[in-house]
Write a structure and sequence with these properties.
Layout lengths: L5 H7 L1 H9 L2 H5 L3 H12 L3 E14 L10 E14 L3 E11 L4 E13 L3 E7 L2 E6 L2 H4 L3 E6 L5 E7 L1 E3 L4 E3 L4 E3 L3 H4 L7 E10 L3 E14 L2 E16 L5 H26 L6 E4 L9 H12 L5 H15 E3 L2
Antiparallel strand pairs: 1-2, 1-14, 2-3, 3-4, 4-7, 5-6, 6-15, 7-8, 9-10, 10-12, 11-12, 12-13, 13-14, 15-16
Amino acid sequence: MKFLIPGLAASMMLTACATTSDVSAPAIAERSEADFQRDREAILAMQGEYAVTFEFIETVAIAPGYELVEPKHTPAREVVVVVEDTGDFIMLQHLLVVGSEENPFIIKHWRQDWRYEPDTVLAFQGHDEWTVEAVSAADRAGAWSQTVYQVDDSPRYAAVAEWDHAPEASTWEPPVSWRPLPRRDDTTRDDYDTIAAVNRHTVTGWGWIHEQDNSKIALRDGTEREIVREQGVNTYTRTELASAQAAYDYWEATADYWALVRGYFNALEAEDAGYRFHIDDDAEGTLLYGPVLDAGQRILFGIADTETAWDEAQVFLNSQISEVE
């Protein structure tokens, strides 16, 4: 995975580093079938209907003269569906429910793929570039990778870690990894280029929490410079959504189309370790995100069939994604 410069990583993420270094390869290898099943139960428990709050607050200004931005608090409604479960691989798709309960509108949101003991994982390199990186035998033994994808199914970030189970909660916490700017900043800021983050999931009896310990990093003049630190807490409280059926209907109508889009990106991930590719888009998503998402909406509204929508989407995918020599 991509890590910060040593001094910055050490000062930013002491907890994550300690967790990683304290686990020995022999201890990981001793995980039992019962542990594996508890891992699966924790991942599958994230499916369902949720009232969600997305909260981000900048906490520590690092760059001289930097002024912390106002905290962001956004309520939402989401439905999380299991798209695939083959035992050692689980795919969860998030569907955002907006509008009134009487007239809901569904937006395909982020996706999370979980793979047990992965051989490779994607690593963001900055500047819109990704590398397929090998995972060592010691790091993958007993561990799961989580790869998160954006609304157009392009990759966003990935990491590898074991699940830790306690009576009251199950927690998955990997080391630091890099990710692109979130769209909330990509549309408004140009002072940093990547986020270095610890991405923590905690599954409880009432729902689950997605915490992020973020450090915003500028990659300029061949150096890495930390700008500011941020805490993110996204809380998923299990509930019954009156408009949830609209999300299930959306997914039933568009699932075949999105399977084709995923297949495009799966082919990139299936390349050998060391393969590098570039994804070009603008902050508003008009080059890739917008057109690919819109093609799916046309299927929902009966304006296009799956084949036609996929033909349109491929044009944008082929034009915006390229191999890095």
